[in-house]
Here is the input.
Amino acid sequence: MALPPSEEVAPAALQFPQGFLWGVSTSAHQVEGGTRNQWSWWEERGNIRSGEACGLACDWWNRAEQDFDLAAQLGLNALRLSVEWSRIEPRPGEWDGGALERYRGMLSALRQRNLLPIVCLHHFTHPLWFEDAGAFTARGAPEVFERFVRRVLAELGDLCQMWVTFNEPNVYSGLGYVMGEFPPGRTGDLRGAILALSGMGAAHARAYRAIHELQPEAQVGFAHNYLVLEPARRLLPLDGWVAALQRKLFDDAFLQLLARGRLPFPFHLADGSFPDPVQGACDFVGLNVYSRMRVAFDLRFPGQLFGRVFVPHDVPQGDHGVQAPYGEAYPEAIVEAVEAAVPLGKPIYILENGVPDAQDRIRPWLLVNAIRQVHKLIAAGRDVRGYFHWTLTDNFEWTHGWRLRFGLFALDPETQRRHPRPSAALYSQIARGNSLPAEFIRQYSSPPG
Ligand code: IFM
Here is the structure.
């Protein structure tokens, strides 16, 4: 796609279309505290690299409204959260009215503050009984998920019209079945990863139809993680080949499932079956975009399709994770991600973008330049309708525990005190003005050294 040339001398403020959504994204397990799901089980068995536990998290179960106040004070107009399946259906077919009531309270509180709620139905976590039955690799999982979704719609449907079925099926299946970093902790099980991915695709399609049956005006999508994977050595065909194969599985497979109704060759050979058509089953595409990584051909990594994935030392990066870098902070990734989603022909929302950065060293640069890319895409005719920063308040970052801090607000999990980082005011000014001020473009034209 030809994008308009970038302004070289005196950039003007970049105005966004009326009704553009400026939000933040969160997820239940990372913020609520006290959740009992397959992840808490995983944590209790010492699988968190930082050695920490989620604990109270941001204590949203008791005080989400205080954070909603912060989001409203920033001038945002949307907030994405998720509901925790294990709270709502603690045993198969048994529903917890108190949990549903609490979610009603949260959604009402968002609406009172003029924050459009977007509810995600599965953000990496589910009840242990579902995990024990094989989770999304099991036959019958889509029906079980649909039962849960129907209940949520029946109880919360009057308070929310925008639904995200799944958060990052590619990350869930890749980290859970290939990399061993998420439960169930398998390594190199490519077939398991593909089964989980296709099971989530089938569950998504069932949920899409069920939601529309119950709420015809609903907008239903999914949140897809898009990672820029580039060959480490451009002149080495093997690097190009493994990078392309990894892209096909990680970046393209789920999008293609939605666009064409099946996973791309050769991955479809290992997938489950799709009794319900998946093709076209979404009203919007959500994209979670963070990083760029390099891929080098390496025979020692058969489970990763013979590609060693790494981050060069000389690229802009946020904080280093436990035993591994998080990734290159790469605002241009948004352009590649959006272009990959365009063939679906649906509106696009950037549902996550951010960087782990406790000192707010690089976040202002990332925020400004990511939003600048979004504006370029809109100017070039791409139907991008919202930007959601990950995240409002530091929260529990999965296997990195409390080590990686993504919040616009710093959180001390012991005292539960919040403290705004400079990026909070920056994002607030952008959201309030529905525009990216020229001085921000000038000030953050290059990454901090
Ligand atoms: O914290 C995660 C989130 O749960 C899913 N997307 C990426 C975020 C940052 O790593």
